[in-house]
Write a structure and sequence with these properties.
Elements lengths: L1 H14 L1 H40 L3 E6 L4 E4 L1 H7 L18 E10 L2 E10 L1 H31 L1
Antiparallel strand pairs: 1-2, 1-4, 3-4
Helix pairs in contact: 1-2
Length: 154
């Protein structure tokens, strides 16, 4: 590369002003190519960081556009629904509905409007609530029985 530049400069000296402009254009092009490479590398790192954040989230994350087309889903979304990224529709593979808690955040990137959905499977919470209701009913029945029994002993 050094020999090429030396040759260009030497040729520029012989060619004159046009050659100088060519050498300057060559240097400008080199700088632009280097900046483009740096920008591409920074974009690649940023994309990898975003992917790592999405994939390490404890909750399912779905990003979709205005038409409802899913642009990005993470591993947790695949696990939650039992589908791979290409198959996601909102039900588990076995057809059962999934009790969900969903947080929606609209966002825009340039002219493109999107929605990020963070989705949490609350099946365990719903089961615990149902068990708590059952235990409360049992406690109420036992309390009535105890009161009745206590009155009969007196």
């Amino acid at each position: 590369m050094t020999y090429l530049r030396q040759g260009i400069r030497h040729g520029c000296e012989q060619i004159g002003e046009d050659g100088l402009e060519m050498a300057q254009a060559d240097c400008t092009l080199d700088r632009e190519v280097a900046e483009h490479r740096q920008t591409a590398e920074a974009l690649k790192k940023s994309d990898a960081k975003l992917r790592q954040i999405l994939e390490s989230a404890a909750d399912a994350i779905v990003i979709s556009n205005e038409q409802g087309q899913m642009l990005t889903v993470n591993r947790q979304a695949e696990r939650l629904f039992g589908f791979d990224r290409r198959e996601l529709t909102g039900r588990r593979k076995d057809g059962t509905l999934v009790p969900l808690e969903i947080s929606l955040t609209p966002t825009s990137i340039g002219e493109e409007r999107m929605v990020t959905a963070i989705i949490r499977d609350i099946s365990a919470r719903k089961e615990a609530e149902a068990e708590l209701r059952r235990l409360n009913r049992t406690q109420t029945v036992l309390s009535i029985c105890n009161n009745t029994l206590a009155r009969s002993v007196d």
